[in-house]
Amino acid sequence: MLALAFLLGQHFMAIVNSVLEMIGNTPMLKLNHFDTGLCELFVKMESQNPGGSIKDRIAVRMIEAAEKEGKIKPGGTIIEATAGNTGLGLGLVAAQKGYKLILVIPDKMSPEKIRHIRAMGVDVRITRSDVQKGHPEYYQDYAARLASEIPDSFYIDQFSNPNNPLTHENETGPEILAQMEGRIDAMVVGVGSSGTVTGLGRFFKQHAPSCEMILADPAGSILTEMVNNGRMTDAGSWLVEGIGEDFIPSICDLDLVHKSYAISDKESFQTQRELLEKEGVIGGSSAGTLLAAALKYCQEQTTPKRVVTFICDTGNKYLSKSFNDAWLADQGLLSRELFGDLRDLIARPADTGDIVTVTSEDNLITTYKRMRMFDVSQLPVMDSGQVVGLIDESDILLAIYGHKEHFNKKVAEVMVTELDIVPPNAEIDAILPLFKQDKIAIVADSETFYGLITQIDLINHLRKTAI
Length: 467
Ligand SMILES: Cc1ncc(COP(=O)(O)O)c(C=O)c1O
Description:
Bound molecules: pyridoxal-5'-phosphate
Strand content: 15-25%
Mean pLDDT: 91
Radius of gyration: 26 Å
Shape: globular
Number of domains: 3
CATH topology of the largest domain: Rossmann fold
Low-confidence stretches: none
Structural class: alpha/beta
Number of strands: 15
Largest sheet: 6 strands, mixed
Distance between the termini: 70 Å
Number of helices: 16
CATH class of the largest domain: Alpha Beta
């Protein structure tokens, strides 16, 4: 009883009746390990929402508003074009309220987000991310077309839905101001649908008019030129997810914005990693962009200021991308030692521990599981630091077809031992004939095994050097 009386005096979160009640009221964290000049920098942890992002907030409010306005009927279908996070939020709400949900997602989005959405039972349509507004496969045009074809459907359209900015004006803004005890000098935000910038801009204009709205924009997006110089430019491309624009959404009010910083993918991904290393916060790729811009702003100030930015989503959604060195290397974004020879083409160098291998004593089931886990179709066979063979999917298939018990066979019985070894200083031309025979190149000299080069590695190399 005593223990219970003690516990009752503490502040614990109350039991909630629905996952939807866990949306919002996210923590505000002061950063302590970055150079913020004269300023104090705080991050609002939107990654703590149940769907893992800021978009849970608008998902619930946009659906509630559509219900009130009679735009969604019980059992109806919700359609949305989304970079993933809005889809996760809508997935939560649709499941709780019994709606069908169809999401159109551009193909650059992380596989983690897409798997998460699919696991919610959502109908996912993947479309091209290399086309712009007006193209039938552009994700928003595709979603609008679906909505016109499917009966009893409602296109949420976060890019022009007034309830999107209204959510931030009515809820996110007041939360931030209360957490900052009314003292905030700058708010650094990214623009995806622009709900956040418009809603918060309106709220602060009224309730904290000296608070400057600052944009963090991926290099390649049109917004920085528009905000800083009033010039419309052609959009480029960027890898950071969820922010950056190739058009100005109808709900976007850029007049509320004071200044914009263009941040490269490389700087965003580096800052995303630093955030985890220095502060223990695993944020998404856009958290890197927002933090990098916020740090630049802080370092430019000549008087102390209280600056807030967002961790818009959790980095758990990006483990296979920006937290994966092999992926960064494929994008040409990892600062790796360059040798000026074939070693530069190896995606998973042996000496970094990134390479996945088996030994000749492993069995085929272990080999198969390792290939599945790391999404590769061949593995080098290594005994005591030396490559002794190569095993690929077809070796396993031929061994076990009609003989499932052969999954227990040792790799040594199945592997290929006639190896195509090329020294690191060989010309690229020397490995092309191997690829013509559907083989891969093993890069090694008499002492050292450096790694493998596959056809996709060569394509990546040629793409990087073509830019
Ligand atoms: C992952 C992600 N999604 C979306 C947004 C922006 O939200 P909005 O759609 O309100 O512009 C951000 C902003 O930083 C973000 O990082």
